[in-house]
Amino acid sequence: MRTQVAIIGAGPAGLLLGHLLLRAGIDAVVMEDRSRQHVEQRIRAGVLEQGTVDLLVASGVGERLLRQGLRHHGIDLLFDARRHHIDLSGPTGGRAITVYGQHEVVKDLIAARLAAGAPTLFQVSGVALHGFDGNKPSVTFAHGGRRHTLHCDFIAGCDGFHGVSREAIPPAALQVFERSYPFAWLGILAEAAPAAQELIYASHARGFALFSMRSPQITRLYLQCRPDEDLGQWPDARIWQELHARLETGDGWRLNEGPVLQKSVTPMRSHVVEPMQYGRLFLAGDAAHIVPPTGAKGMNLAVADVRALARALAAHYGERRDDLLAAYSVTCLRRVWRAEHFSWWMTALLHRFPGQAPFMARLQQAELEYVTASPAAAATLAENYVGLPFATFEGT
Ligand code: RFL
Ligand code: PHB
């Protein structure tokens, strides 16, 4: 088997890269270790930046997103039992976020890929990367009970944080930056109409809480919990009680309850490897970097990476230019570190840290008051939250 680009992983990064390459006339094979059903039902991110939406629409996979996505022009910050509105669009020239599940983006991309007859292999196993430090990379794997070798020009490691691609790079060639946080998020998906139009990020003495949604019928909610939290200790009634306590402010606004469709605990970490390239292997998305979900940046970073990679590969094949490929890591890391800072800042602003010193609590309070009182500070939050334009990070 032979292709131009072997793409490992069918998450948002791998699928969108495959899609953009297809549009540029570049062959790729996408291989994924889980089933199609699994990746289409995996509940994760829900907030798409303006640039992510623009790219999906411009590349022909935005039809359902435009029809079903919920466009939001603001978010609320809740503290001291009061909600404070942050306008996202005013300070950003009309940019906004769109709430549309990551798994819906994945479904749209898989549908486009299958309609085009582009090779997509689910339930592969034993994926191993070879020869990417030279000119003849290949990927070996098992699929349908047989071993295969896929020869290629480039490998795109889009296999997430627990994938094999980053691990295939000699450790001495990578610099790792990481921070873990002393808490996690307990997330639920509930069959209940969202009781508010916009997202609510709550700083509460009992811990952080987030009110979000997926559709006019489905509410998505998160609670700060311990990193080793046992879901068995969290029957639905306890989760609702805690959500009511952290999100309601005594002004009559009530959260709508409904059957809990899904429950999970997500650890919180920041993690970056540099560079995002080794020879002919390019890392993209969670394979190269993780942010805590507080800033809603993970999937959007994955999208920005593969946009840069697709453009660089198009320049390689179409114009025999390799300057964009050579600059890939540096270009992506500028946005990555901006998002790492923003996600860390939002996380530090809104969570209770175990054993938190009173000094830190006062700093959080001062920052919350500043962000909600100062138009300049609110604009900084807004421009980061809706996502800085791609061009911001493209200069040399
Ligand atoms: P993914 O989605 O993890 O996809 C990687 C794919 O690779 C497959 N794979 C392999 N395939 C073949 N061989 C192997 N050896 C393989 N090993 C793994 C996996 O099965 C998988 O299909 O990474 P990608 O594409 O880089 O996408 C990144 C995003 O998924 C992630 O950053 C976001 O979900 C993060 N995130 C959020 N991001 C946002 O932009 N906005 C949000 O609102 C947001 N909220 C969140 C989030 C992540 C969360 N969790 C569960 C971590 C909320 C949560 C709770
Ligand atoms: C979500 O809807 O899942 C969501 C929204 C905002 C975040 C993280 C997750 O910051």
Written overview of the protein:
- It is a single chain.
- This protein folds into two domains: 5-46 and 101-174 and 275-354, FAD/NAD(P)-binding domain, CATH 3.50.50; 181-267, 2-Layer Sandwich (D-Amino Acid Oxidase, Chain A, domain 2).
- Helices cover 36% and strands 27% of the residues.
- It has eleven helices and 20 strands.
- The chain has helices at residues 12-23, 36-41, 50-58, 63-68, 102-115, 165-168, 236-247, 298-319, 323-350, 358-373, 375-386; strands spanning 5-8, 28-31, 47-48, 70-72, 74-79, 82-87, 97-99, 120-121, 125-130, 138-143, 146-151, 154-157, 175-190, 200-202, 209-215, 218-225, 260-274, 277-278, 281-283, 289-290.
- Helix 1 (12-23) runs parallel beside helix 5 (102-115), helix 1 runs parallel beside helix 8 and helix 10 (358-373) packs across helix 11 (375-386).
- It is globular and about 65 Å long.
- Residues 8-14, 31-34, 39, 44-47, 102, 124, 127, 158-160, 163-164, 185, 187, 266, 285-286, 293, 296-300, 302 line the site of 8-demethyl-8-dimethylamino-flavin-adenine-dinucleotide (RFL).
- P-hydroxybenzoic acid is lined by residues 45-47, 199, 210, 212, 220, 293-294, 296.
